[in-house]
Specification:
This protein has about 350 residues and is an alpha/beta fold. About 35% of the residues lie in helices and about 20% in strands. Helix 8 packs parallel to helix 10. It starts with 5 loop residues before the first strand and ends in a 13-residue tail after the last helix.
């Protein structure tokens, strides 16, 4: 049997209530030349039976079971079994819109310099009850170009994992998901970006990203905020060593307790702080662990410092970017956001 153009890999665990909708959305794709590789990760519900029925009805669905080892092992097992030149990811509780595979494959076909293709996604949860996640989705949907994705990768995960499609060549060159005390999907993106893989998105809403209360990113410590900052700090420190003309010295935008806790992770990687900067007059003039808190207006002129904004409150990142760029700072050359 000839290898398909696209393989969609789907780890499945106790998802009997949702995986049928996920598979229906894939079998309705406008692109015909694909396969679904669905791995049953030792489910204890009827997931296996649902998968077997879909495989019986449609030869494009391939499924097999493994002993329960978690989402990383199941995702990698599916990737190992994939036969396509392009490999897509999808979760068993999400839905792909009909043009997803065609649009992402076309993006990769038309842009040989792009190694990973995403898309804009539709938030499938309750915006009122899950406002933080919804705002995160909105933010990811603004990042479409390789530069936008690359220069914002230390803020948060810029390409939702269930929406990606990548070249097999990238997988062979840079490896698949790694197991550790960090979010494996974010680590893969950081690792591939560091290796020079360019990423872009199809400018269309092609995936419904649902947000059930038992989603792993809500419940597993591997996906908590501290885990994200630990892994991003490791990669950010190496990026600064390669791109900061004043290395190892940086200027930190923000001086609150949470900001300092997260920025201070850089210290263990040999980064040094010249100063913290703030707009709160109650903080200006304080000295924290030997580092002075200065008025934001005292940030050096462009070329005299490299700044790392670490303020994560809603609207603050945009405000700081506007301030720095109003001073003549250039994203990636003079500053890089990290929150």
């Amino acid at each position: 049997m000839a290898a398909p153009r696209v393989s969609v890999t789907m780890p499945c665990y106790n998802c009997g209530d949702t995986v049928g909708r996920a598979l229906d959305s894939l079998l309705a794709q406008t692109l015909a030349d694909f396969e679904v590789v669905a791995v049953d990760d030792g489910s204890t519900d009827d997931t296996g039976a649902v998968l077997a029925e879909y495989a019986r009805r449609d030869r494009r669905v391939r499924t097999f079971a493994v002993n329960h080892g978690g989402v990383i092992a199941a995702a990698n097992a599916a990737i190992d079994a994939a036969r396509g030149a392009y490999i897509a990811r999808m979760d068993a509780d999400d839905e792909s819109l009909p043009g997803r595979l065609a649009a992402q494959a076309r993006l990769l076909d038309d842009n040989p310099d792009i190694g990973l293709a995403g898309c804009r996604v539709r938030f499938g949860g309750c915006r009122e009850n899950c406002a933080g996640y919804a705002h995160y989705v909105d933010w990811t949907n603004t990042l479409l170009t390789p530069d936008a994705i690359s220069l914002n990768r230390f803020v948060e995960f810029p390409v939702p994992n269930p929406s990606i499609m990548f070249r097999r060549d990238c997988l062979e060159a840079h490896g698949s998901y790694r197991d550790g005390d960090y979010p494996e999907d974010y680590e893969l993106l950081l690792r591939w970006s560091e290796a020079g893989v360019r990423m872009a998105k199809a400018d269309a809403e092609l995936l419904v990203w649902n947000d059930p209360p038992d989603r792993l990113s809500r419940t597993h410590p591997r996906y908590d905020v501290d885990a994200f900052y630990r892994i991003k700090t490791e990669y950010l420190a190496r990026w600064l060593a390669d791109n900061n003309p004043h290395h190892p010295t940086v200027h930190i935008l923000g001086s609150g307790r949470t900001t300092r806790k997260r920025a201070d992770m850089l210290l263990a990687h040999g980064v040094e702080f010249a100063a913290y900067y703030d707009v709160d007059p109650r903080k200006i003039g304080h000295v924290v662990n030997g580092v002075e808190v200065r008025d934001r207006a005292d940030v050096p002129e462009p070329g005299g410092a490299f700044c790392v904004p670490y303020v994560a409150s809603r609207g603050a990142r945009e405000d700081i970017a506007g301030f720095l760029e109003g001073r003549g700072y250039v994203l990636g050359r003079d500053y890089i956001p990290a929150a």
